[in-house]
Automatic annotation (TrEMBL):
Domain Na+/H+ antiporter NhaC-like C-terminal: 49-219
The entry's keywords: Antiport, Cell membrane, Membrane, Transmembrane, Transmembrane helix, Transport
Localization, UniProt: Cell membrane
One Pfam family hit: Na_H_antiporter
Family: Belongs to the NhaC Na(+)/H(+) (TC 2.A.35) antiporter family.
Origin superkingdom: Bacteria
Protein name: Na+/H+ antiporter NhaC family protein
GO CC, alphabetical: plasma membrane
TM annotation in the entry: 12-32, 38-59, 116-148, 160-179, 199-219, 240-271, 283-308, 329-354, 374-398, 410-430
Amino acid sequence: MIEKQVKGSFKGLIPFIVFIIVYLGTGIVLHFQGVELAFYQLPGPVAATVGVLAAFLIFKGKIEDKFVTFLQGCGHQDIITMCIIYLLAGAFASVSKAMGGVDSTVNFGITYIPPHYIAVGLFIIGAFISTATGTSVGAIVALGPIAVGLGEKSGIPMPLILASVMGGAMFGDNLSVISDTTIAATKTQGVAMRDKFRINLFIAAPAAILTLALLFIFGKPDVVPQALAHDYTLIKILPYIFVLVMALIGINVFVVLASGVILSGIIGLIYGNFTLLEFGKEIYNGFTGMNEIFLLSMLTGGMALMVTKEGGVQWVIEKIQNMVVGKKSAKFGIGMLVALTDIAVANNTVAIIVNGEIAKQLSGKYDVDLRESAAILDIFSCIAQGAIPYGAQMLILLGFTNNGVSPAQLIPLLWYQMLLGVFTIGYIMVPKVSNLVLNFINKNTVSKKIEETPDFE
């Protein structure tokens, strides 16, 4: 966002620090008061507003100039693009769920899980639901109660059952083209979702395959439960597949999501899941469901530009430079920044938004491909989010067991998150692998552009 180089200043970073302290501090206080989901009681936009007010109070200059800078940040093309995608993604998720897409997906998977491979099947179903809907929390809410019931009947240790659901949910959260983490990572770095997905999948697929192997070996039930059959409609799963395929082909994300909303709406109208008026209301429900992340993105966008102009981002970069000696350490620096931020605020999307500009500037300085920085931002934030005991995913999942499983029992079994971290580190440490993946993406991108070029002869 800033073209000219500014002098680094710790003072410039204070608004971000205020934002994190307010967000984190409130969660800690409420946690010790015994409030459920303590870290999610204070809406992110409120904490961000406190940070913005801090910027207006401590930064020098005319109030009018500071306000102009703030509005420029709020209205930056990348921020507005990100916000509109959030709205469309919310609409798609809401309409698809209302027409029975989530229920059909879960029921289809449960019906065809081989009873011997419950843990493996739960990971796969969780991964598909999360990838299709763009939310790990949604996947956990939909699948969690069923998983607990299957675990109780099968004799498989409940922590392993829950770990398989958590792993699958975080797999999809990290990779989904409509996940708010993917949207934030790609838009803050200015890269195409398809390219980030390819790099991300190259790293995540081996981790997922090894996780499935471990679940296959250690997740065999003592008692094979009776196969469960549930009602499902295959056509109601179609919109999720449609959106995923179209996005990966490279169709404009606005067209993909709008088409997905329409397709889900048509299916819902045909099956009588809602009327035309109710269809419109579901679209709006999807919009309102994204209000918090929409407002948070705008407010932090404005705050980020003020912080950047004041030298806060440059100050962080200068300090990181003491540890960064090249491209590899720059990638590790980006990953550690976003992971530590997520541990602090317990929200992977917030962590990405806060560190997006820093990651972009670090990438430019140390020649890190922005598609890689987008993938690293998303991966490290999801690893942290999928493991912290006070994260929404962990709290909701453990809540289905009625305090029967503790985070200490579950965390050592989060094999997918651990393996994802290992493969990401390996990707960073072996430049030949990184170059191979980027060359593959570049070759296919160039080929696609040549195919799309009209012939005027």
